[in-house]
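User: Working on a comparison across species. This one is 2,3-bisphosphoglycerate-dependent phosphoglycerate mutase from Phyllobacterium endophyticum. Can you predict its structure so I can line it up against the others?
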Amino acid sequence: MSGTLVLVRHGQSEWNLKNLFTGWRDPALTQLGHEEARDAGKRLRAKELNFHMAYTSVLSRAQATLDHILEEIGQTGLDTIRNQALNERDYGDLSGLNKDDARAKWGEEQVHIWRRSYDVPPPGGESLRDTGARVWPYYMHDIQPHVLRGENVLVVAHGNSLRALIMALDGLTGEEIVAQELATGVPIIYKLNADSTVASKEVLVG
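Assistant: Here's the predicted structure for 2,3-bisphosphoglycerate-dependent phosphoglycerate mutase from Phyllobacterium endophyticum:
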């Protein structure tokens, strides 16, 4: 058995609350988001999990969530790597727009395609496949080797960057992964086999 990989989507952000397309914009966590992050840490502490290192994006909502988790598990000095490869999907021209306003401008069907198709990007932005094209190599080259050496690794990132990663880990199709909702602040624990396949998966819901 190799190590453990834990994935956590950041807590609720101010733009999640306002129903805005966020992407690479950098709003802070809401009060609920801070609480979700602390709760994630408490659930991991109850599992008695200690980590060898952590990864997060360059966006503050993910970094703040990671900080809360590390405080709760008593590992505030943990080696942490921040990389743009783990950023949220870039929503391009939709970034900062209210989702209802976007539907009024481009139509319900078109916005649905941009949000829920696997390979159709919004104007100036990324599709989920595009997001995966930067997440997958980074995971393979930088994160996975630590897990296969028996280390416990924590990744705190975003709904779509983590969807791309889960798609690869779980062997899902593009259609299957875009249909999956990823809750904020809920740890997902993967145990990997020595050949990098998934031995077990546990979702730590409240």
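For your comparison, note: The mean pLDDT is 96.

User: Helpful, thanks.
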